[in-house]
Design goal:
The chain is an alpha+beta fold. Helix 2 crosses helix 3. It has 2 domains: 4-111, Alpha-Beta Plaits (2-Layer Sandwich); 116-213, 2-Layer Sandwich (Alpha-Beta Plaits), CATH 3.30.70. The mean pLDDT is 97. The longest helix has 20 residues, at 194-213. The strands form 2 sheets. It has a 6-stranded antiparallel β-sheet, with helices on both faces. A 4-stranded antiparallel β-sheet has the order 2-3-5-4, covered by helices on one side. It has helices at 21-26, 45-58, 93-109, 134-140, 155-168, 194-213; strands at residues 4-6, 10-16, 36-42, 62-68, 84-90, 113-115, 123-129, 148-153, 172-177, 186-191.
């Protein structure tokens, strides 16, 4: 099964070399630890969460803020808003640069949604993280370095897909987010060994494609 990638669009990237301490606190950071900030908006929220995690693996940065926007990129509040704002914090501006570079590379070459029906009217995110970084490891309650399948699709498709994924491999669910999310999709995080996570992701994507092609059965 080969699906067409839908590469995320990075809409805005800005740096604050010495952010105001009250601003840092408001966004969940620690002014004693985080002096510089990097801010990014993107039109794919789940790809951004993966890319933020990648940033923590490639640079000494922390994810201090990451939020999806209601109704998704198609209903964004502005031209540069997209679907999510992510904020990383560090002591030095150079560390922010390293983190942003890793984040953008991940969005360009790794994490993305896929076209599940040939029309981009049904999309799927069957992403496998071979080794979790500090950000998503903490969010998932798993150890850094653990493999995880990060699975997202529209509501019904996601439900059928998750059932298929759980039956396809020796994986366990660490988070199931039933619809609606902020973007009206549904999400699941599964863990197991890397081969199992990959098998679960393939089964998930195949089930979503099947529903997209035959919605009534």
């Amino acid at each position: 099964m080969i699906l067409e990638r839908i590469i995320p669009t990075v809409l805005s990237v800005r740096r604050l070399q010495r952010a105001d301490p009250k601003l840092i606190e408001a966004y969940g950071g620690d002014p004693d630890k985080h002096t510089a900030l990097g801010l990014v908006t993107c039109d794919q929220d789940d790809a951004m969460y993966v890319a933020l995690d990648e940033a923590t693996k490639q640079a000494p940065v922390d994810v201090i803020f990451a939020k999806s926007f209601y109704a998704g990129a198609a209903h964004a509040s502005g031209r540069l808003s997209g679907e999510i704002l992510g904020v990383i914090g560090a002591r030095d501006p150079e560390e922010i640069d390293e983190g942003l570079d890793a984040l953008i590379r991940c969005l360009q070459h790794d994490a993305c949604f896929y076209d599940a029906d040939g029309k981009r009217t049904v999309t799927v995110f069957p992403h496998v993280i071979a080794s979790l970084g500090e950000y998503l490891a903490k969010e998932a309650g798993l150890a850094v370095g653990t493999p995880m399948a990060y699975l997202v699709a529209p509501p019904l498709e996601a439900t059928i897909g998750l059932d298929a994924a759980l039956k396809a491999a020796e994986v366990r669910a660490v988070r199931i987010t039933v619809p609606p999310t902020e973007t009206n999709f549904a999400c699941a995080w599964l863990t197991g060994d890397l081969d199992a996570c990959e098998a679960a992701a393939v089964a998930y994507a195949a089930a979503v494609v099947d529903v997209a092609g035959t919605p009534k059965r």
